[in-house]
Task: structure prediction
Amino acid sequence: MSASWATDHIREIKDYPVPGVAFRDITPLLGNPAAFGRAVDELVSRFHDVEVDRVVGVESRGFIIAAPVAYRLRAGFVPVRKAGKLPWAVAREEYELEYGTDRLEIHRDAVHPDERILVVDDVLATGGTAAATCALVEGLGGVVVGLGFMIELEDLQGRARLGDRRTESLIGY
Result:
């Protein structure tokens, strides 16, 4: 799980959003066309052997990565948003963060039974956001065929909350 080429483009911000948390900021990577393109290409390559109907991106940095991944995989894109942001009928799931709780929502018609779903987000930390997203997708009848992340904070052991689902991360800290 090494992508040393990318670590030069990721900034660490200590004590954000709360004291004791080291936030991994991917905006320098997003601003570098070569690094951003390579990150998208590498995530796509990790799932080249999987049929994907839709890519679910988690608000908000997950959208930025998931949309081009969906395009490259010739799949639809589905946003999963924080509570109150979607304009139509939603399914919702509450989850725990490493520093609190939150809720995610998805449009009820965004995923159909038996569709093959790839979940994409910027960071895998405690696994709460990813597990909640999987619960939303599976609650609508979708099949999670994989989860892809730019960064994994390995000490937080988020993979443990994802069961035996295929999980790929480009960078491990």
The chain has one domain: 4-172. The longest strand covers residues 143-152. Residues 33-46 form the longest helix (14 residues). The helical segments are 4-7, 27-30, 33-46, 61-73, 128-139.
